[in-house]
Every structure is written in C-alpha cells, then in structure tokens.
Amino acid sequence: xxxxxxxxxxxxxxxxxxxxxxxxxxxxxxxxxLVEGHLEELTSVFFAFLGGIDEARPLLGNRDIIEKxxxxxxxxxxxxxxxxxxxxxIEQRVRLAVVYSNAGLASRVFLGAYHHMLRALGVLVMKHxxxxxxxxxxxxxxxxxxxxxxxxIIVDVIVFERERVIRQQQEAIRELSTPVLQIRERxxxxxxxxxxxxxxxxxxxxxxxxxxxxxxxxxxxxxxxxVATIDSKVANHLLQTVTAARxxxxxxxxxxxxxEVAQSLVGLGIDLVKFNTVGDLQGGIEEAERLIGYRVxxxxxxxxxxxxxxx
Amino acid sequence: xxxxTRVAIDRETDIVTARQKGRELAAACGFASxxxxxxxxxxxELARNIVVxxxxxxxxxxxxxxxxxxxxxxxxxQGPGILNVALALQDGYSTAKSLGLGLPGARxxxxxxxxxxxxxxxxxxxxxxxxx
Lengths: 311, 132
Fold this sequence. Notes:
Chain A is of the alpha/beta class. Chain A has 14 helices and 5 strands. Chain A has 2 domains: about 10-170, Globin-like, CATH 1.10.490; about 180-310, Transcription Regulator spoIIAA. Chain A has helices spanning about 10-20, 20-30, 30-35, 40-50, 55-60, 65-80, 85-100, 105-125, 135-175, 200-215, 230-245, 260-270, 280-290, 300-310, and strands at about 180-185, 185-195, 220-225, 250-255, 275-280. In chain A, strands 1-2-3-4-5 form a 5-stranded mixed sheet, with helices on both faces. In chain A, strand 3 (about 220-225), helix 11 (about 230-245) and strand 4 (about 250-255) form a beta-alpha-beta unit. Chain A starts with 7 loop residues before the first helix and ends with a helix. A 5-stranded antiparallel sheet of chain B has the order 1-2-3-5-4, with helices on one face. In chain B, helix 1 (about 10-30) runs antiparallel to helix 2 (about 35-55).
C-alpha cells in the first residue's frame, strides 16, 4: 500500500476521480441486502466467464488459488455494497489484485469478467426495483462508481507488480554505477555518469565518504564528463559532497565540466569558486598527484627512445 | 512544423523525461547544443519546483515557428502557490533548504519569463527562448 502511494489522501483523491461521495453510499446501502442474498450466484458469473477463456488458465488451473480467489471475490462483493470505501476497502482490493497479478491474469481479462458480473448485478437490481425503477437505477449508477474505483486500483497493482522487476534491475544498476576507485595511495577517483537523482546523489556521497575514511584519502578527483545536465539540485549535491570530503581532510577536484554545463552553472549563478576545477580528467589526476607529492616520470622504453632519436 | 509535448510531473523521474523531451524539441527547432542544454536546464528547474512544492503538475513544451523560431515552456501546477513572488525570484531565497537558484536561474537562461502565482491558486511559469 505504502509502496504504491496509497495514502488516505490518495484514496480520497481516487474517490474524487470517480465522484464517489456519501450520497452514493446511502444509495448503495439500499441494495445491500439484495446483493448479500445473491453473492454465490454473482461470483459464479465472474468465474464462469473466466472458465471460458484460455488466458485465465493460470488462475483457474490451480485449485488452491481458485478457492482463495472465490472467497476474496465474495468478500469483495459484500464489501462493495457496505457503503464504506476507506483504507480497509482499498487494502482488500490490493490484496485481491496481487493474487490476480501473481497468477498472471491480464487486466483486459479481469475487466471482461468484472463487466459480466456487474451486468448480472444490474439485471438483478432492476428486476427487484419494479416499484421504483429510478431508485434502482440510481443505486446501480452509484455502485458503478465503486466499480471504477476498484478497476483503478486493480489495474495500478497489476502494472506496479510488473514494473517491480524493472525497479529491482534499476536498483542493481544504481549500486553498480557509483564506484569509487583508488588510483594511487591516498588518491581516489569518482567518475559520475548519467542522471543524478536525490537517491543516487546520497549513494554517491555515502560511498565516497566511506572510501575517504577507508583509504585515508588526501585528494579525490570527481569526474562529471558523463553528466549531461547539471541543474541547481545536482550542483547543490556536488557542493555538499565536496564540502563533506573537505571536512574529512580530503581535497576534491572536479573535472570534465563541459562547455554546456559550465554555461548552465554560470546561468544559475552557482558560485564556482567553491569548486576546485580542472578541465579534463587527465589534468585533474596530474594536479592531484602534484598535491600529494607524486612525480610521474616517463621511463625510456624503446618507443620513447626511437622518438628521441628522430628529434 | 510546430510541435507540442506535455509531460505530467508527479515524481522525480518525470523531471528527466520532461528535460529529454524539451531537448529533443529544441534540437528539432534548430537550437545550438549549448542552448539545448540551457532549455533542458530551465525545464529541469521548473519541473523540480513542481515536485518539491506542489507534488504534481505538468510541463508543456511548444516549438514556435511564427515570425521567430523558438520554444515555449509552460510549467503549471495547482499547488500552494508562492506567497511572495518577488522574493522567490531573488537569488538564494528558498523555503525548501535548496540553493534558491532554480527560479531566478531559469529566468536568466531564457529570453522571456512570466510568472502567475498566488497562495491557494497554484503557479504557472511561462518561459521562452528564441533561436538566434
């Protein structure tokens, strides 16, 4: 529920979408007794429809599931006419939807079955409203709002469950995509590639600070060549990371700011003085080595010797 | 050919979607690479404000091919609105502990800027940039 953002506020919003209010509840309660008396018959319409199509086989083929679903469906119908459509009601809808989703029931198949059951319910209501057909019709129309509330939930759950796999993969990629590399003793490299959102920014800061401590790093080179857009939020994250690194005794050098990004930062009015910047990654590493006190000297191998002779 | 794209904004990933659509449209419009980035930046800031302050809203990106070629971005929400618009347009002012550079920054990188906001009425920001 919480994962899907189904808060009390969201549920109220969903009720507003379908126009469900307390007057509807009153009209629905008028047919409560009638529907309660026909629960078995109405749920049978739902499952009879599913029984006739191939796509529902994963759901109907399993006896354990089918018993559970029949029970939940009957509970659904009975709750549907009780007039209360708060958190408890929505929780039940989610529970049933998760069962559908796990059984691989597609939303179009569910919608077909649900439609047939509602039609049977409508016929039943009208048959018992001969004395006042208008009242019967009104009750049914109010119930239809509940039905659309249900459909909204169930379709969202089916989509949400399907997207779960994608989200898990994204999480995995996110973990992989923020390596902190040690180049030399006390010199770290943090290459940032792609889109930085709040969560990823936090992850980057965390892993960098941990690595600074573990490697007793003096200098960190943060390379942003792979970041296409730096807006004020991302710039703020970078600033905070640089400041935190400084507090832990490490100097941060930012490299790879493209001309577009540089103009963005100037446009935003970000104080670049706080960034210790060097044009490209190579220059940044050289600067870092100089800060720590390394000197890199080219050995005279064959290639270099040849070159020298020519000169 | 004039084009229009709408992106519903209600979570952080929508900001990236809006930004990418804006960049595509800006490229099709004939903007240079730097200007494309600045347009994407403005969209990013406006969409971010929607997520942070109003939770949901929309970004409309329109390319114009009238007398002048250019792009128009409308960021609209029905959030709480801005109490003091003049203050919100000042550098470094923020009610959300951010840098406070988003709105003034978006204004600086674009050619035209309009804002309509009042408490309880929501906020609409319209910005335009012309191909030079």
